[in-house]
Amino acid sequence: MAPYAITHAGGSIEHYNEEAGAVWMQRVFETFEHLVWLNPTPKDFWKHSYSIEIVRGLIENRMFPLTVKGLEEAMGLLAR
Fold this sequence. Notes:
Oligomer: single chain
Low-confidence stretches: none
Distance between the termini: 30 Å
Order of helices and strands: HHEHEH
Strand order of the largest sheet: 1-2
């Protein structure tokens, strides 16, 4: 996902949306008390993606790698 798809209205290349992706993500975050993001991109590459950094900030750093260890850590957070 390109950063502008998150930060700007109409930023998606597939569909025009009058609101930025961040607005929709905030709605999900506010609707669900327990939320994690499982990221299939290897964790070593996260710091090289501005989009991943934006999403991590929006979900208050509740991002985990899509690995067995990442799933265990995510489930630990959700079980609190």
